[in-house]
Please model this.
Amino acid sequence: MARIGVFICHCGTNIAGTVDINGVVEAAKQMPMVVHAAENKYNCSEPGQALIRDAIVEHRLNRVVIAACSPRMHENTFRKTVAAAGLNPYLLEIANLREHCSWVHGDGKEAATIKAMELIRMAVAKVARHEQLFPKQVPLTKRALIIGGGISGIQAALDIANAGHKVVLVEREPTIGGRMAQLDKTFPTLDCSSCILTPKMVEVAQHPNITLLTSAEVKEVKGFVGNFEVSILQKTRKVDHTKCTGCGICWQKCPEKAPSEFDVGMGKRTSIYIPFPQAVPPKPVIDTSSCRYYKYLRFMEEKKEGKPPPQCRVCEKLCPVNAIDWEQKDEILTEKFGAIIVATGYKPFDPTIYSELGFGRHPDVITGLQLERMMSASGPASGEVTRPSTGEHPKDVVFLTCVGSRDEQRGRTYCSKVCCMYIAKHAIMLKEHDPEVQCYVFYMDVRTVSKDYEEFYKRAQESGTIYIRGKVSQIRQEDGKLIVRGEDTLLGEMVEIPADMVVLAIGMEHNPGAVELAQALKVSYDVNELFIEAHPKLRPVETMSDGVFVAGACVGPRDIPESVASGGAAAAKVAVLFSQDFLTTDPMVAVIDQMKCGGCLLCTKVCPFKAIDTQVLRDGRTVAVVNESLCKGCGLCVAACRFGAPNLRGFTQQQLLAEVTSLWQ
Amino acid sequence: MVRSFPTRKLIHQSQLGVVDFESEDTWICATCRACVARCPRGVAIIDIMKALRSVVVGMGAGHVPDSLRVTLKNIAGTGNPLGEAAEKRTDWAKDLEVKTFTKGTEILYFSCCIPAYDPNIKRVARATASLLNKAGVSFGIIGARESCCGESVRKAGNESLFQTLAQSNISAFSENGVTKVVVSSPHCYHTFKNEYPELGSNIEVVHFTQYLAELIREGRLKPTRETNLKVTYHDPCYLGRHNSVYDEPREILRSIPGLDLVEMVDHRENSLCCGGGGSRIWQETKKGERLSDLRLDQAVATGASVLATACPYCMLNFEDSILTSDRSDVIKLKEISELVLEAL
Model:
């Protein structure tokens, strides 16, 4: 038999000023199963809580109703209070007499008093049907997976590793470093990009807490926060990295050349290669599509007519440690992790669809990233900027902004954030390389929004760069020049600029495979296939999937400082998670009665947390099962189910029905 | 460049509600859609131009150019812009074996007013009908019951006349049991396909180049006669940018043995306009301001001896440009169906 105690709080004058407390106490005493009702100036104060604890003991109470403020304010406080008196903390119900009553009915004391009584009557009816609930403790793997080895992923890996936890860093390419490694200088300080990046890359490689997996991709993710099980595809490199010392003889002697991905077509690499001299790991991979030996193997396999190409195998012959392994196959590694950080970054927008700009048709129309590679001292041109068509130094260079960004018709609707700044950087650098260079910028708006950025833009203008507000409608070739035709909207006139080189400020786009990864991780993504954070302001590195965090440009266009900051922030969140030895799960989650479940699985579709799995019973029936570690207790499945199979602990259908029916009893 | 056209100014004036309706600028836009296709903000510029003109035409807020006023009057009176009698609409087909559309005929051939009446452009309709005959297609025409499709009328801002024309054509189609129509003009194509359905039309609309490409693919027409022509193709705005039909005309030209297809500097999505869209075809364009002159320069620059296209308005404008620039011995103007007919 329930023995219920009701404790009504004045909250100073917050409640007592509007509600007749004595009247409510008297009414509560008359309610069924109520054996004790008392008032208190402040229930939440220490003396107030002591009164509640004493009353529980004295009156042998086994259920408690606190009539006070919102449960969001003090439910946890009072759970601890009743637990201290020996009761299960879930045998408590809060009647919200402040936000739901006194604050909103200040003008009618009598009606507010009646409403207060009704709220308490409902709480009493509900708490009488409360059951003891017990939180579960789940063990936790203190090991983090970081997907993506760009600057965000590197920062996150180092921060977590330095906090003393194990980290596995997975990178799709043969080296870490990401887009930042391709850049020449960084704005607005003009620091050399690789000079500040490569020490961090080396630190990753040498850190005892970090395992680096390059040429690897995440394929499948199972489990939940603290207990993820992840399948990682280790792509074959045809080189045994446990033997390879990175001496470099193979890539120095390889006779076959292919366009370098790292140099975005501005240079070549050999078939066995490291993407750039400071690559980490400094060990090569074989590109089987261009390698002569693989061409030979494909020729033999297809039984083509004629003389087969040479077998080559020079690398194998020269390798001093026999590290070349033609038989090496793709491998799947399955590992356990407690937390995952996604830092998959961006890919530059492909400008070929802007056919009027002639990218791919005119060799002197290049992208900002290509110019970056040309300018880099360690790049294919050793820092010398030349016209691809003639090899001469360009004198007139035109930059076009917003190629692929802020474009509802052919590109992405968002601003890519970094282009205005990198154009200013390019213009300043070109002028420094060669004072005779004249730069022009066609812009829609110039957006320079961080510290020292506006001053940097001013510097570009003062260096002589001419900014023209308007879009370019046509680029054509005439007498060895590119004629850039566009509108100067401030003059309201068409202008034509004869240029030696045109640089397209291409924007940022999601990397290929982002959607598949988001689906595997149960993380939401937007129409642009960018990952969505749990809250854009207050939870910027968390996702709606517990234990999965996001960092860097996979969430949206970000520059280097923001990427580093978000990598560090995600690492801090992981460190907080790993500071616990067990994860405590909230018992107020949904449970599904398998006897009632019809197997329609509508609940799995409505569940925003992907917390409902399916299970095949021995009799062959398929039923839904709640994963209590993922469930947040939102109750959507309860509302959706036509069989009434799910029930939300702490808000069961019986409890809610009792609450409502108490109103007319 | 022929002249500047301050699109942005007009749009901004419209936003502020301070449009100068008396300005010539209201009537300059040829609705070529190059701006709409590239506008990063997705502004419906053509719809706005149409709205501005409808204020002039419908509410008398400004002056309608004289030649346009006359043409609109003609269309309202006789159903065609030339003011010719409706019963003369089928005269182009007199000595050809072209049947009248009856129940059971598979396809309606809708020639457009220009090939039906213009003495010079009649050859387009004649070539098309001959090709359909040679392929053994079951087709017919409905002649006097047809009116102008109204596409340019609508762009000229005369919405009520457009509605009348559209309703008249839609009922002519349904009374005759038409389910599929082949058109010569990209303007008819555009409005039948994209605008008539809102008014209750549900017929299948095919441009002649699409249909011809299909006939050649199926082997029902076989261009076999070897030619050594160098041909350049001009994309009509209403076929290309408005409806993304770029490949079929080129596919047809490439199917002609020996024909050397060369592209102009600006082609496909970036094609220049002949200047005839958006009712410009019925307005005077001063010499020196004609877009077709610029386009002809591009065509001549390719070294081609034939400029091919697939639109009656483009035909009219280029005929004019070739004559006034005295280049008829340098380059010939041909509609695609003429070229195919010659190659059979």
